[in-house]
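Continuing the series of single-chain predictions for the mutant panel. This is the parent chain; the variants come on the following pages.
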Amino acid sequence: EYRLGDYLKNKFDEYAKERNTENIQDLELEKISRSCLMLAKKKYILDISWKYPGIIFEPQQKISPTGVEIVQGSTPKFARKVLKELLNLIFQHGKSLEYGEIIKKLKEYKGQFILQNPDDISKTVAIGDYEKYVLDDRKEIRLGDKCPINVRAAAIYNNYLFNTKWKSKYNLIKTGDKIKFYYAKNEHEVFGFLPGDFPYEFAPPVNYDIQFEKVIIEPFNRFIEPLGFNPISGNLIYARSLF
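Parent structure:
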């Protein structure tokens, strides 16, 4: 309003004159951020300070993620909550954030994680080309080459269901369905199910260590690595440097 707007307009006019064309650029100030975390193209997180038409936010009051796990539909409900809280911690401390504090918080979250409903810690994803990849899901599980993990999880569910007495209670998964899946303690390592219809009667136990690593630790590592932090291991163990 006082300086930058006119400066930008003049520069665009100069550019247009050099290229022998008309200047049609008309920019408006949309928001100001105290800090931002840039992860990749169209993947960033802002700690917004001011937003049009004059709304002011306190530090960490308005964390705005774009293109990252927090706003992705596949991210489990509980993981979104945890990642939001961890992002507040990053923006509050920045590079002064200590590993010990990070590990302590992650251990607290893991204690809560194992108490959650499987619906709230499983990834959500659509099933495409089920028949293309699943050669048999009745007597045994036979999969085609390069079968996606979500399709494999669906085939395991269908196979378990087909060979139990619960066929009348639960529906089979087919192409076009949305499913939830998690890393499991079974010979196939994953298991899928239809949202809101977890089959407690025959579902294998959740492998909480791997599931926590996949849906919380790995996304969190992508947040802290641009700040110069080494990635956190899945076992939540770290050693202090001697030098």
